[in-house]
Amino acid sequence: MTQIEMQAMNALIGIHHEMRDANDLANDRCRLDVAMRMLPTLFENIDGSTLLTDGKVCQLVCESAVRYADALIAELKKSRK
Q1: Predicted TM-score (pTM) of this structure
Q2: Residue 65 neighbours by CB distance under 10 Å
Q3: How many domains does the chain have?
């Protein structure tokens, strides 16, 4: 392989890595956005005093929001195929 071919291959590999990283960042932003939008709906069904006295409830609600976001993203990916 010539030096020019090697440089071209390395450039393509670099572009591939940048595109993958950008895609990962976009997915993370989407996941965060969906989870944040779910939080108010999930918190509506919980008494505010419970949140103040039990930090675990808040953690569980946040984890639920992330699970909803992951499920939604998984379904969206299925529909693209």
Answers
A1: 0.57
A2: 21
A3: 1
Among 23-27, 33-37, 58-62, which range has the highest average pLDDT?
33-37
Nearest CA-CA partner of 45 in 27, 60, 33: 60
Task: Return the structure tokens found at 12.
Answer: 């393509």
Structure tokens at 55: 């930090």
d(C-alpha 54, C-alpha 22), whole Å: 38
Residue 12 domain boundaries: 3-80
Number of H helices, E strands in the chain: 3, 0
Q: Which residue has the tokens 């419970």?
A: 50
Say which residue the tokens 């976001």 belong to: 69
